[in-house]
Please model this.
Amino acid sequence: MKCPRCQANVRSEQTTCSACGFSATLLHSYLGNQWVRLERITDAAHCLRLEDTRRLEIILDDFERSFPQAFFAIYLGALPNNLNVAELGFWLLNQGAFNTHSVNRRNDFGIVLVVDPSAQTAAITLGYAIEHCFTPKTITQMMQTIGSHLRKGAFGMAIGGSCIRASEVLRKHARYMPWQPEASVMAESSADIGLQPLRGWQRPATRPLAELPAPRI
Ligand SMILES: [Zn+2]
Model:
């Protein structure tokens, strides 16, 4: 597992990165620790055209049909200076209640792609239950492909391509996946960055895996 802040290797039993001091508690201190409701595609940066979104919804539907326990979600937005894309991906997969077609999808079977178009960075965060399916080489290749599309401003291609690639990877492993539905409980309250907080079971669902600093155009 990699630290979402400094990319140092962190053992799974560690709660704090010994290299930089990062911890989920630190993220909670400025993002909160309540559940937030999210659409599968959150385009806070308004990067996607209508036809991009429609095409992506079809790709995400195909993904969810192929893998009834998994989901793929995307957040596009300009992040504050104290937050990087891998950290937000980590937090979203731990605190996001994603609006998928089935309520039984668990975040530890989730994949979140966070893109910051202003900083020109992107990160893929994988849930615990599926991270073993993705080798470091696979992740590197996915991030290179995403980076090449993002540099051309092709946000839809970057997202759609990565979702399709994730399907190919998971298909090889799908028959080994356990299926244990678990209900999540949601509630009220308010938050910053336009996300509706929810309350529910608190269980770490993710480890960050890779971050791509894409070169500036
Ligand atoms: Zn660190």
